[in-house]
Design brief:
The structure is a single chain. This protein is mainly α and 224 residues long. The protein has one domain. Helices cover 77% and strands 0% of the residues. It has helices at 2-16, 19-29, 34-60, 73-95, 117-129, 132-147, 152-180, 184-197, 199-222. Helix 1 (2-16) packs parallel to helix 7 (152-180) and helix 4 packs antiparallel against helix 6 (132-147). The two termini are 22 Å apart.
Length: 224
């Protein structure tokens, strides 16, 4: 179990530091009923990560090791494909980056003040389970757990650790809001501005680092 938890830690950090979900929660907190929407967003986020990870683990079943006790070849192939996909995604995002000084954010962020708790939960679910970057990393995390050959209990604990750590980023604005109350506005505005300005750079660095790690892991599995 310890090996499985260690394998998902860097992947969880990559999901947790996604700028767009963090900015979305910050914007929600500035609207009427924002704290409720922020909480339901985070709950949707957790459900999305848990569902994707669980599906991958169920599909992998007991296929986490070969006859010699090492990782099955499919694990190496999956990691290699995911790693290449993340690196390719980083290249695409970098080439599409906005011009300097133009911190363009998704158009749906302009409608956040109209969100209901249900819509906020759906957004959290979508950004964690459907967003290509997070989907690829979560699948990679589940594959890493399967690679260790951990039992059902150990795999469940490792996935839970991944989900919790991957949720810290989107939950930070809520923690700041609760801890500072009315004084949180300045801190949250600064956080939103910084992450919006550096969104593409943060994402590309994370994608490349995690992609290279997955490629290396995949090559290791396939050549041993």
């Amino acid at each position: 179990m310890g090996e499985a938890i260690g394998a998902v830690l860097p992947l969880a950090v990559g999901v947790s530091l996604s700028p767009i979900p963090i900015i979305a929660v910050v914007l929600m907190l500035a609207t009427p009923g924002g704290r409720t929407n922020g909480i339901t967003f985070v709950l949707g986020w957790v459900v999305g990560l848990a569902v994707v990870g669980t599906i991958v683990l169920l599909v992998s079943g007991g296929a986490g090791a070969n006859d010699g006790g090492g990782p099955a070849p499919w694990v190496g192939i999956v990691k290699l494909v995911l790693g290449v996909g993340l690196v390719a995604l980083s290249v695409v995002q970098w080439r599409r980056r906005p011009r300097e000084g133009d911190a363009t954010l998704p158009a749906w962020m302009t409608t956040i003040d109209t969100f209901t708790p249900v819509k906020a939960a759906g957004l959290g679910l979508g950004l964690s389970a459907v967003n290509p970057k997070n989907l690829l990393i979560t699948v990679g995390a589940a594959a890493a757990i399967a690679q260790t050959g951990a039992g059902a209990g150990g795999a469940a604990v490792a996935l839970a650790v991944f989900v919790v750590l991957a949720t810290i980023g989107p939950a930070v604005p809520l923690i700041i809001d609760v801890a500072l109350g009315d004084r949180s506005a300045v801190a949250l505005t600064g956080l939103r501005g910084w992450m919006a300005a550096h969104n593409t750079a943060i994402m590309c660095v994370l994608l490349v680092l995690i992609g290279v790690k997955l490629i290396g892991d995949g090559v290791t599995v396939l050549t041993t």
